[in-house]
Design brief:
mainly alpha, 146 residues, 3 helices
């Protein structure tokens, strides 16, 4: 590991850590908003009070699982940053190939997580839009003449 590689890896880790932190915040904020909206709907409509908890529980479980994976990714990034800082702090530090490999694997894992998370969000929003269009079509059918 060289000083330049350590500097580049540190910048990459900090950037990925920032992106993961923002995504986790947005994920958990969305879960809280969804739970509050569901609670308000149920409080306003007594017929809904006994139905639909399974969907909310399933959604909450997915959010928490993704959140746990994000926290694990952030912890790996922090650990890698600590290793880089310790390596840089040693006077006359050597090549430390294992530190270089560890930082590369940590950056790779976080990159894959961020890209997979972004793709998952796009697919989730696509499915929500498709379901909304289906609901609108069922509620207000109209004929299209060619």
């Amino acid at each position: 590991m060289t000083d330049d590689y350590a500097a580049v890896c540190s910048a990459v880790h900090l950037t990925l850590l920032l992106v993961v932190s923002v995504e986790l915040h947005l994920l958990m904020s969305g879960l809280v908003a969804k739970i509050k909206a569901e609670y308000n709907d149920r409080a306003a409509n007594e017929e809904l009070a006994s139905t639909g908890y399974e969907n909310l529980a399933r959604s909450a479980t997915r959010h928490v699982a993704l959140g746990a994976l994000g926290v694990l990714t952030a912890a790996i990034q922090c650990g890698s940053l600590i290793l880089i800082c310790l390596w840089a702090a040693i006077d006359g530090h050597g090549p430390a190939r294992w530190v270089a490999w560890t930082t590369m694997l940590a950056a790779g894992w976080a990159s894959v997580f961020v890209v997979a998370f972004a793709i998952g969000k796009v697919l989730y929003e696509y499915n929500r839009a498709r379901d909304a269009m289906t609901d609108v079509a069922e509620q207000n059918p109209f004929e299209v003449h060619g």
